[in-house]
Amino acid sequence: MQFSYVNPTLIHFGQGQIQSISSAIPADNKVLVIYGGGSIKRNGVYDQVAKALEGHQWTEFSGVEPNPTKETMDKAVEIVKQQGIDFILAVGGGSVIDGSKYVAAASHYDGDGWDIFTGKHQVTSAVPLAAILTLPATGSESNMGAVITKAETQDKLPFMTPHVQPKFAVMDPDVMKTLPEKQLINGIVDAWVHVCEQYLTVAHDGMVQDGYSEALLRNLKQLGEQFESRDNDAWRANLMWSANQALNGLIGSGVPHDWATHMIGHEFTALWGVDHARSLAIVQPSLLRNQIDVKRAKLEQMGKNVFGLAQSETLAEETIAAMEAFYQSLGVTTQFSDYQESKQQAVDAVLSQLEMHGMVALGEHQAIDLAQSRKILELAIA
Ligand code: NZQ
Ligand code: ZN
User: Fold this and answer.
1) Segments of the chain assigned to CATH 3.40.50.1970
2) Where are the strands (E) in the chain, listed by range?
3) What is residue 273's predicted lDDT score, i.e. its pLDDT?
4) Residue limits of the Fe-containing alcohol dehydrogenase-like C-terminal domain (predicted)?
5) What pLDDT, on a 0 to 100 scale, did the predictor assign at position 351?
6) Ligand 2: distance of its center to the CA of 191 in Å?
7) 65 CA distance to ligand 1 centroid (A)?
8) Whose atoms come closest to the Cα of 38: which ligand?
9) Is the domain 10-175 a CATH 3.30.70.20 member?
10) Could you tell which of 34, 42, 48, 95 is best to mutate to test the pocket of ligand 1, judged by most ligand atoms within 8 Å of the CB?
């Protein structure tokens, strides 16, 4: 265990907190409000934001799509540059927040923003930004990561820099009331896999990281089991806070990380538009079965401490089956069958994307090469 840790995002959590942005954004700042396809116009969030910004000079950019594209976000970069925007306020889910992070970084660069993903440009500064979260899932509201798609080439790639860490995040669970069932389920699954990517690796001595990860997994399991009776303040608040804590840097400090499920899952989204969380549920069980020998100790620990299973020779296998059953109980499929051509062509398509993106040594041991990915995909694609 050796690490430096800070999470500098100030969180305003609870009902009615949107009004706190009035004083949280400097009064003389020119603000760009960025949002998605319009859900915030229908559920009153836009009106609350407009009211809170009454004393500010602000303008807006809308139309950020789920799995935000560089092509769309470059239009916002233009606005920031032309109008001298000082502060970006992202109002939405992970897509709007990630897209805004790209805008914040690309606006401080004269070249093509995609250079951030190819390594040609190192981000050294960005327009300050903050988030009003409307969909708990990604943790993007208080972390320094973002995932952007270049539609032209079907590339979906992440970047990370402390310069795009939100200055503050507003998390009002009431905004979740208008979320479709599908998005709430996506939130549970995405947060669950975020914990797994930082927990389900190899045995280590990080008692805090393991214990807190297990608490989050038990919460998410319970929230999933209570899905039918979810219409209450406590359920919403607990999901919102659990999803945030799953990817805010804390449980991942000083421990090994995996992230192979995410990197392979991103290709399903890029190729076939599979929802992010659903791509994870497709990849993860097959990946865990492929990696069961190296992950056996942690799978057994998870089986006991999260699912309450008894020690046995097949505990690791039972834990994977329990996870798969959990996803399926939420109506989330754990194999992909939505391809047009043959299974072999689908497997090859994902593999060639992985190769093109340099995703050839994934997992906590960098042991998932293309040959292992092929085996995983043979299981994950029906
Ligand atoms: O665009 P609008 O109209 O707002 O509708 C959105 C969108 O269609 C809707 N929605 C959001 N809040 C709502 C609402 N509808 C009704 N009521 C509300 N309160 O939900 C739809 C999906 O939104 P999206 O932002 O795409 O979902 P999510 O938060 O799951 O974000 C997914 C994106 O985040 C990336 C994913 O790859 C994907 O691109 N991730 C970002 C991460 C990060 N920055 O740390 C980590 C994750 O692993 C993930 O990769
Ligand atoms: Zn995720």
Assistant:
1) 10-175
2) 10-13, 30-35, 57-61, 87-92, 129-133, 145-150, 155-160, 168-171
3) 96
4) 185-348
5) 98
6) 7
7) 9
8) 1
9) no
10) 95
